[in-house]
Specification:
globular, mainly alpha
Length: 90
């Protein structure tokens, strides 16, 4: 379920990822793409696994973590990597 209140959504990201990564996402205006990725992952894995995925370095993202790739503006690349990873979890 997607919530329309951006403050609640940002708070959820902060609870899962921590303040520093979310501050970077806010500064880069990348909260909405991060939420899209989170919602996709939540359909497949636990919040803990989604958090681990978000904060880990990925070869598919040119050896960056998804937060950094989103900050860099690579939304589609991150979403594709999340889809592929989530599909492999099932």
């Amino acid at each position: 379920m997607y919530r329309d209140d951006p403050l609640d959504d940002e708070l959820e990201l902060r609870e899962l990822l921590g303040d520093d990564p979310v501050d970077r996402l806010v500064d880069a205006d990348a909260v909405v793409p991060a939420l899209d990725v989170l919602r996709l992952l939540q359909g497949w894995v636990s919040d803990e696994r989604a958090t681990q995925w978000f904060l880990g370095v990925k070869k598919r993202l040119d050896d960056r973590d998804p937060v950094t790739a989103l900050v860099d503006g690579d939304d589609d690349l991150v979403l594709d990597a999340a889809r592929r990873w989530a599909a492999a979890q099932g």
